[in-house]
Every structure is written in structure tokens, then in C-alpha cells.
């Protein structure tokens, strides 16, 4: 994949995931909408970052000179993740996806792997056949009940000089630091940390445009809960706490106390590692 491929990849992504949303739509869900211009711009910027950080993990499939599928994966120290993977609807089920996944798994070179998997039947089939365990994920949705917010102390906004201990914490939780992904997130989201000498370390990013926490890691569930409460306190309208695995039910307890509703969506796919905890993965940089 090169940067010139990104606009065509975005088109394939938008078409494939509109179909995923349509297939997975429940009776009371709104009609799925195509990706809007702002979301497409954010997606392209994110892919640009990943392509620059580890280009060898990013591959495309072409037919008659046109891009029909792609996979964006990354090695970060001792861990490999799959950020995005899609094949154009109409071309699916013909083995293109298998060839793409085989190529990016070669790049992983035996590293433990992690990614957020859709419930698309072709995707789940491919992942399990490639040896990944599919851990069902929960999510909490709604508006935070502000009268439930506890007083949380000992947190502050994060800075570039926090990234070193954050990478070390990631290493303990998922086998590798986020490295360049932290630098990207720091530019695009608000970072809140627990970093005083007498406190257990932890961090959470708050995507202020989306109004929700996007990646959380902590040394212990108490610190994780404080970080999540603080992030939720900064949200205003509808929010979402995503990527909650069973090992992270501390996040369900916080969400219920904040009067968010519990829902279920997708899987955390893992190979060669157990569920990171206390940890809420980001959907792209895991
Ligand atoms: C996941 C995806 C990239 C796989 O690409 P693909 O070209 O369809 O993959 P393959 O044809 O190599 O393999 C898919 C397998 O699932 C099966 N499959 C595909 N679509 C299916 C469907 N709707 N229902 C049941 N089985 C399906 C195929 O028959 C094939 O199985 P087989 O090789 O044993 O016959 C593609 O289906 C896709 O883009 N899905 C939507 C986006 C998505 O969910 N991406 C993954 C996000 S984590």
C-alpha cells in the first residue's frame, strides 16, 4: 500500500462497513448511514499515520488495476495488531480476504496479535480459521447521570514526557507500547493520566470530537475506574464506552453507576495473548 492507495481504500472501507452495519442492524437501531466527509477525513489521516509508522504491514489487493481490498496492520515491539481490513462487497467470498490476511500475518512474524473484529460472518470465519480466539465485547451507551459523578482526585492532563511510562505500562498489559500511536493520539485527543509518585499509573484518551473515551490502560482496576469516571465527566451528550471484554467488567460497573446502558458488539480477537486488563482497547490502534 502507498499513500496514493488511500482514497480508493477509503471507498472500499466505507462500502464494506456500510454492509456490516446493515447486516448487524437490530430492530431498534437507526438506519445505517454512509461514512460522512468529516469521518472520512479522520479515517484518511489515521491511515496516513499507520502507513508511515509501519508500511510493511499494509497491503492492497487489485483487480484489473483497481483496488478491491486492503489490510492495515502494524508491529509495535512485541505485539502485532490489525487496524482495518476490508474487501469490496461483490468481490467478497472469493479468497481475496484470505490472501490479504495471510500477507499481514506474515508481517506479524509470530508476534502475539490483537484486533477489534466485526461480527461480519466472513470476518469471524477468517479470524477463527487463522487461530484467533474471539472474545465477545460489551459497550456502554447513553448520557452520563451527572449527579452520579464521584469526586476523583490525583489525575492531570498528560504531556509528551508521560509517553515513556505509558509505553512501559502498555508493554506489561499487551506486550508492546503504542509508540508512534501515542504521539498521534496526543495530537488528536485529550490525554488524562494518573502519574503522581504515590499513585498507581494509568491513562485514558478522551476523543473530544466524538465525546467519548478511546483508549484506557491502568495498573489496577481502582485507577482504571477513576480514569474512566474522569473521562465520562468531560462528556456532554450521548457517549460510548467501547471494547469492554469480560476481564474488564470494572468498566461495566462504572458505566452502570453512570446510568449508561449495557450493549454487546463485536469481538476482541486475540492470538498468543490473554485479555489485557485493566484495559479498554482503541478500535484502530488497539
Ligand atoms: C472480512 C473480509 C475482509 C474477508 O474478505 P473475503 O474476500 O470475503 O474473504 P475470503 O473469501 O478469503 O474468506 C471469507 C470466508 O467467509 C465466508 N463468507 C464470506 N461472506 C460470508 C457471509 N456473508 N456469510 C457466511 N460466510 C461468508 C467465505 O465463504 C469464506 O469462507 P471459505 O474460504 O471457507 O469459503 C470481507 O468479508 C469484508 O470486507 N467484510 C466486511 C468488512 C469487515 O467485516 N472487515 C473486518 C473488520 S474486523
UniProtKB/TrEMBL annotation:
<dbReference type="Pfam" id="PF00583">
    <property type="entry name" value="Acetyltransf_1"/>
</dbReference>
<dbReference type="GO" id="GO:0016747">
    <property type="term" value="F:acyltransferase activity, transferring groups other than amino-acyl groups"/>
</dbReference>
<feature type="domain" description="N-acetyltransferase">
    <location>
        <begin position="1"/>
        <end position="156"/>
    </location>
</feature>
<dbReference type="InterPro" id="IPR000182">
    <property type="entry name" value="GNAT_dom"/>
</dbReference>
<keyword id="KW-0808">Transferase</keyword>
<protein>
    <submittedName>
        <fullName>GNAT family N-acetyltransferase</fullName>
    </submittedName>
</protein>
<dbReference type="InterPro" id="IPR016181">
    <property type="entry name" value="Acyl_CoA_acyltransferase"/>
</dbReference>
